[in-house]
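Field log, afternoon session.

UNIT: design team B
ACTIVITY: writing a sequence onto a fixed backbone
BACKBONE:
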């Protein structure tokens, strides 16, 4: 069933958009990521203009993340104090990211640069996660072998302004999580992502948080940062397509509930390696599209659109 999207100015199959929303909602519940790293490139693939895809995908991220967060709150696996620190940094980063996005849009280079950002970040994060996940699985199979201590003190523990995060079992400086939040907020504004694919590894490997707490805490931060980013795009760029957002939200809310249930049945190492595979697959598809010659070499569009 074809449906016309007024802001994107294209016609897309409604069931296809519902399916994309459901898939990303499933990932949100399983991995604690907003799913923007997947939904935004997928919208590119079905013909949605990058500027509209970036601005609108954050709506779906809010809905699917909120749905998944409710399931984690019931299980008491959310560190609200850590989430608040990440949120403060995320709001600052989103404001900075929107300035960069508007500058790129004014130059007429936003489409190309957004795609390049995705290839670089997804390739880097996916590779690092894959290596660490494989090492973790190897250690799990050979418990008698050399094992790295998870809670060793490093440079993070030497920084000032320490705060006790009881749910995570940590006593560390607020500076690292604040900086992680700023970085994720910038990505959210420029790339239309929740930033979970960066934040989840950072919370596990940099901050030393337990995986079961990371997922719910990541979702808590994602909800508010992506809501703020959506409002910024809607009021400054007018690139949020309500019809597209509604279809993605319906699919995302349903998929998130199934994802939260499925995530509890998999081991932490299995969850991380599946997420790494997804990140690398999306990165490969985007890189291939950039390298291959497009079907249409020229296009005509109105100025400023």
């Amino acid at each position: 069933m074809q449906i016309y999207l007024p802001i994107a100015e294209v016609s897309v199959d409604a069931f296809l958009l519902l399916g994309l929303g459901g898939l990303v909602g499933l990932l949100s519940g399983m991995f604690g990521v907003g799913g923007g790293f997947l939904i935004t490139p997928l919208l590119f693939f079905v013909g949605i203009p990058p500027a509209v895809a970036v601005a609108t995908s954050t709506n779906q991220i809010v809905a699917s993340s909120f749905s998944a967060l409710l399931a984690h709150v019931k299980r008491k696996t959310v560190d609200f104090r850590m989430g608040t620190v990440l949120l403060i940094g995320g709001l600052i980063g989103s404001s900075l990211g929107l300035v960069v996005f508007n500058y790129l849009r004014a130059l007429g280079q936003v489409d190309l640069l957004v795609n390049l950002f995705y290839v670089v970040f997804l390739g880097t994060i996916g590779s690092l996660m894959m290596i660490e996940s494989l090492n973790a699985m190897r250690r799990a199979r050979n418990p008698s072998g050399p094992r790295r201590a998870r809670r060793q003190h490093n440079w993070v523990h030497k920084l000032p302004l320490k705060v006790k995060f009881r749910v995570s079992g940590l006593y560390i400086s607020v500076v690292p999580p604040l900086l992680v939040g700023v970085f994720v907020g910038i990505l959210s504004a420029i790339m239309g992502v929740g930033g979970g694919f960066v934040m989840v590894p950072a919370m596990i490997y940099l901050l030393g948080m337990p995986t079961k707490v990371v997922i719910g805490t990541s979702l808590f931060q994602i909800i508010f940062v992506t809501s703020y980013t959506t409002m910024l795009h809607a009021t400054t760029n007018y690139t949020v397509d309500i019809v597209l957002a509604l279809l993605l939200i319906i699919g995302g809310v349903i998929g998130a509930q199934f994802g939260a249930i499925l995530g509890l049945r998999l081991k932490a190492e299995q969850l991380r390696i599946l997420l790494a595979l997804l990140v690398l697959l999306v990165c490969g598809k985007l890189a291939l599209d950039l390298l291959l010659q497009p079907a249409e070499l020229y296009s005509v569009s109105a100025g400023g659109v």
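LOG NOTE: The two ends are 27 Å apart (CA to CA).
NEXT ACTIVITY: expression trials, pending approval
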